[in-house]
Amino acid sequence: MSLKLQQEQVLKQVLTQELRQAITLLQLNCAELGEYLDQLALENPLIERKDTDSYQPVYHKKSQDRMTEPYRTHQKESLQMFLKRQAIDLNLSEKNQRIFHFMIDSIDSNGYLNEPIDAMAAVLEVPAEEVEAVLHQLQSLEPAGIGARSLQECILLQLRRKKKRWYEAELIIEEHFFLFARKAWKEIAAKTGVSMKTLQAVQDEVSQLEPRPGLHFSFDEEHVYIEPDVTITVVQDHITFELNQRAFPDVEMNEGYFAMIQDQKRHEAYAYLKEKEQQYNWLVQALKQRKQTMTHVVREIISHQTDFFLTGKHKMKPLTMKRIADILQVHESTVSRTVKGKMVQTPYGLMEMKQFFQAKLEGHSLEEASSYTVKTHIAELIQTENKKKPYSDQQIMTLLQQTFGIRASRRTIAKYREQMNLPSSTLRKRYD
Fold this sequence. Notes:
The chain is an alpha+beta fold. It is built from 19 helices and eight strands.
């Protein structure tokens, strides 16, 4: 075997540092960008963020379907601390305090106790009866339903805490909970003699209770308060938009260090500062590019979804990221990164930017209809239906075609309904 040198020309795409930084910045949302810039400022003495005095409202992530009041940040007490404060009035013995503290550390963010009594007793080396007794004391605290081991127990604890006890409701939940939850009310009526009207009244009572009593103390991502990256408003059929200044901040060079670069060219720190100056210039360019790209994408969204902003949710049209990318003459991944994690405040509430990109309903030929539009019509039909005779999926399918000219299969209706967490007609039916 002979060895020989061979020269081969290969075309390879190499990402420059500037391009990598631009890609990174593009996909960050408001909060993530702030953290990223803070970190860069720690590493680079030349970088200073420009402060903005403009007020930006903050909205609750769970209230995306409606406008909400701005939320001012304040210190929240944890569920565990709230329970410990109440425990002072229980006058627990030292032994029971140990059980109590172990128990509240086993409560999840929803307020449920996930650790079995026997398991806690084994770890604490105490009789299970003592653990059970402390649990009853814990369950007597606020909020009602705390320390429950199941949804059934959570509801029962709240019903028993009512000033005016309704023993019939308690009996139904205690002995026929799973039939009740499945709305097999005729079977319950046959077993207990309770009327359908009474069962409906029990349902109405239960619907007012809190299935997750620890929720108000939760710091989970699902319940954080967030800022919109973009605000879109409509005034007299004129659509305008504004970028949140904190989501698209500017940076400036630290003047003191800048003077060092100019005056101390022979200083040993000069090379270090020149490197940091180059990093600063890359950052300025990347932030500028990020702002321009977002501006172009938002303008195209408004252009394609004008009817939505002027008329309402039912006018959302099919739109793909590729279509926007082709218009802007950028790669589809650029639009995807621009949209990722961004929130838009609209006249109809806070929305994820990706919601404006909807697929066309399969098999629909009478008009352009997006899945978002179909879901909106389904939700409206269910909201306005006669609850004593709710629409079946088949009836919704017929109404969509007759009223809105939208053809969709019954399976598609069922799929969209389930995606919106809307129950079946059987579970929506009322008996009063």
